[in-house]
Predict the structure.
Amino acid sequence: MQLTTTKKDNKTVEIKMKDEDISIADILHHELLEDKDIVFAGVAPPHPLLGENILIVQSKSSNPMKIIKKSFKKSSEQINEFIKELEKLL
């Protein structure tokens, strides 16, 4: 996976995810929408054959990169919890 920022200012950031399907971006997108400082969060797949997605995040007042980091940590914790529960079933 390769990450690049295509747009970044105080309230908006666009992150291009190359060589990755939409799954990770969609999980992060869902978690971002739970944050009260987020105005907009979305995933834009330019074309399915390109193998890239763009995560677009706009915040009210905070640095969107800090909110993305916080949301990613929360998503990671939820995934780890899911794995533990799945292992109990196996």
User: Anything to note?
Assistant: The two ends are 30 Å apart (CA to CA).
